[in-house]
Amino acid sequence: MNFQRSEEQQMIIENLRKFLDNEIEPAFREHGEGFIPREKMQGWVQALTEFGMTKAPFGEEWGGFGMDWLTHLMVFEEVAYTSLDIAIPGFINACGAELLRRTASEEIQQKYIPDILACNKFIAIGISEPDVGSDVAAVKTRAVLEGDHWVINGEKTWITNGEYADVFICTCLTGEGELTHILVDREEHGFETVGIPKMALNGQSTSQVFLSDVRVPVSNTIGERGQGLKNTLKIFEYARCHMSMWGVGVARRAMDESIKYSQERKQHGKLIAGHQLIADKIATMATKIDAARLLTYRAIDMVERGARADKECAMAKWFGTEIAVTAARDAVEIHGGNGVTKEFIVERLAREAIVSPIPDGTTEIQKLIISRALTGEQAFR
Ligand SMILES: Cc1cc2nc3c(=O)[nH]c(=O)nc-3n(C[C@H](O)[C@H](O)[C@H](O)COP(=O)(O)OP(=O)(O)OC[C@H]3O[C@@H](n4cnc5c(N)ncnc54)[C@H](O)[C@@H]3O)c2cc1C
């Protein structure tokens, strides 16, 4: 077991950090927290693919780097440290491409995967609906067969990348208790999206998706009919590792900002870094960040080796996203009154952190998955 980065990974991360600090951070600050238009976002995420974002785990036949998910996640952590808004589209493109790589026909793979990896196209994955959240099996969006076409009607919500999406993987009810993934191409088949304003992460897109009598050829079925839930659960494993690293990125930034501030701010005649209760907060952040990262490295290693990893991915997702919440809160406290002003980035981190535990299964759901694996008792129904 080797916990060191390889030389190649080290080089990628060092170069990436310089690029993020010198190019992305100032550009993102100048843009502010408002919605990042597609072209601008695309320019940024395409530049990041050259460091392995999205491309690292995929073979050269797809235009990937033939590396691994671990490297992609290391890159994702770095980008999340600088800007979650800019990190998220590549996360969804990577998971969407993996879903296609695992389950789509060769024709669909050839048509979409290279463009998704290069971020020439954006993909979105839609399970959630106004009445369907934690209970992913309860999907209502219906696809009915008419000849050699599906006709889809329904509404999805909270869809990441929604407004950018050229391609939408829609989880549809295709029969009694039968969920199926269907690929909808915005240009060929059409769907409408409306952005959802949130407390944070408004730079990237979270949207409603409306499908009204959308006709899609049956050949756009992704995976076998009725396998939508099973295939979703597999992709959740990748997504949950990303969510954990999302938390690690936010928590690490919160810690670094706290260290810097505590080394400058004096109270009671000394730097606040020297006060033991501040030292406790920083030591706790550092330890939890390492623990979350290690949980994630284990989880993604198991996923890559094809081992069952639902429990380990759930542990990583729960822990990684929740430590972001506590680290960001502690960072605000370490900054005192300054921590709640727009002048200091920890204010933004705190809002972003609060969002973290929700997507891809809440903390409660992760705990149910972990306990089910340990006790064999099904807590969901
Ligand atoms: C920023 C963001 C991006 C997202 N991106 C996507 C996306 O790209 N695609 C997509 O399909 N969805 C996406 N989602 C949706 C996300 O997966 C859901 O919000 C999440 O699964 C929770 O569902 P819900 O919001 O309906 O909450 P609910 O399921 O209504 O849950 C409400 C509360 O009840 C708790 N709860 C529910 N069931 C149980 C139970 N059995 N036991 C104990 N507690 C329970 C939950 O933990 C939560 O605290 C996104 C959400 C956000 C916030």
TrEMBL record:
It holds the Pfam family Acyl-CoA_dh_M. InterPro entries: Acyl-CoA_DH_CS, Acyl-CoA_Oxase/DH_mid-dom, Acyl-CoA_Oxase/DH_mid-dom_sf, AcylCo_DH-like_C, AcylCo_DH/oxidase_C, AcylCoA_DH/ox_N, AcylCoA_DH/ox_N_sf, AcylCoA_DH/oxidase_NM_dom_sf. Residues 124-214 form the Acyl-CoA oxidase/dehydrogenase middle domain. GO terms for molecular function: acyl-CoA dehydrogenase activity; flavin adenine dinucleotide binding. Gene3D superfamilies: Acyl-CoA dehydrogenase/oxidase, N-terminal domain, Butyryl-CoA Dehydrogenase, subunit A, domain 2, Butyryl-CoA Dehydrogenase, subunit A, domain 3. Keywords: FAD, Flavoprotein, Oxidoreductase. Residues 6-118 form the Acyl-CoA dehydrogenase/oxidase N-terminal domain. Its cofactor is FAD. The keyword Flavoprotein applies. Residues 226-374 form the Acyl-CoA dehydrogenase/oxidase C-terminal domain. The keyword Oxidoreductase applies. PANTHER family: ACYL-COA DEHYDROGENASE, ISOVALERYL-COA DEHYDROGENASE, MITOCHONDRIAL-RELATED. Belongs to the acyl-CoA dehydrogenase family. This is Acyl-CoA dehydrogenase. It comes from Halioxenophilus aromaticivorans. The lineage of its organism: Bacteria, Pseudomonadati, Pseudomonadota, Gammaproteobacteria, Alteromonadales.
